[in-house]
Amino acid sequence: MPALIEQVTFQGLPAVAMTSADGARAVVSLFGGQVLSWCPAHGEERLYLSDDARLDQSRAIRGGVPVCFPQFGALGKLPRHGFARQSLWTLRDQRCADDYAMLTLTLGDDERSMALWPHAFELELSVALEGQRLDIELEVTNTGYASFAFTAALHTYVRVKEVENARLEGLYGHHYRDANGGSDIIRDTGDCVVVDAPLDRIYHDVQRPLTLHDSGRGLHIVSEGFPDVVVWNPWETGCAQLDDMPESGFRRMLCIEAAAARHKIEVDADQSWYGRQTLIAL
Ligand code: TA6
Asked: How far away, in angstroms, is 142 Cα from ligand 1 center?
C-alpha cells in the first residue's frame, strides 16, 4: 500500500490524515497544529484524546499533542499555554516516500497574535510517520527586527491502559519542581515515576531518553532541543474539575511533554530555534 496524505474532516475539524507505506497512521488537526491520533504500523492508538474534548474550535483540544507557544502554562500574562493551540495552522508541505510520510504545518503572526504578543514569527510543525516511530518537530523563526523570548512545549497526551500500572523510566537523579508542591526543587530518587496521586512536575535538563512501560507495552520518548520534561496527570480530583474530560479519563492518559519551561528561549531577529519529540512504540 503506498503512503497517503489527504485533507479530511475529523469530527468536524479540518485535518490531515497520514498513512505510511507500512501502515502507520496519524491525524493532525489544522486547528492547533495538533496531532490527534497516532497508530504505529500494526499497532493500536498511542495518543489519548478525551471523549469530551471540544472539537468546535471554541477552545483548546484536550488530548493529542497540543503545541504550547509562546508561553508554557501560566508562566506569563498570555492565555494558558499560549495562543498557538487555538490558532488555525496552514498545510505547507507534504511528502510521501517508500518508508515514511511527512507533512509541515505553519503558523505566522497576525492581528490577533500581535495584540497578545507583539512579535513577528513563523512556526513550522513537521510531523513524520514511519513504522513504529512518530517525530514531531517545532521550529520557531523570528521574522522581525528585534529578538524575542518564549517558553513552549509539545504537550503530548500518551494513552495508557491503566495509569496506576504505568512506569516511566529515565528521570532518576533529575531535579524537578512540583506544581502541586510549591516552589521547592526536588531530586527524583525513584527508579521510575509512578502515578497514584495528582502529578504535575517540570523536570530540568533531561538529556536521556525515557521509557514508559504500560501494561505489557512500551514507548520510548526522545527529545532534542527542549531542555525540560513535564509529567502531568490530574488524577481523580483534578480530572473532576476539567469539563472536557470524562470522570475516569485520568486513568487512560499520562502527559509526557517535551518543554522549554524553566528558562525562556531567546531567538534573535532572522534566527530560528527548533525542538523535537520522537515517540517509538516498543
Ligand atoms: O503541562 C502541565 C499543565 O501545565 C498542568 O499544570 C495542567 O493544568 C495541564 O498542563 C493542562 O492545562 P490546560 O490549560 O490544557 O487545562
From this structure: 26
From the candidates 81, 119, 155, 174, give the one annotated as an active-site residue: 155
Contacts of residue 58, defined as CB under 8 A and 6 or more positions apart, other chains included, come to: none
Cα 114 to Cα 117: distance, rounded to the nearest angstrom: 5
Given 124, 130, 137, 257, the catalytic residue = 257
Per-residue pLDDT reduced to its tens digit, 32-90: 999 999 999 999 999 999 999 999 999 999 999 999 999 999 989 999 999 999 999 99
Cell output for 170: 529515565
Ligand 1 within 6 A of CB of 75: no
Which residues, listed in sequence order, are joined to residue 176 by a DSSP beta bridge? 186, 203
Structural domains of the chain, with CATH: 4-281 (2.70.98.10)
201 lines ligand 1 (CB under 6 A): no
Supply the pTM of this predicted model: 0.98
CA 230 / ligand 1 centre spacing (Å): 10
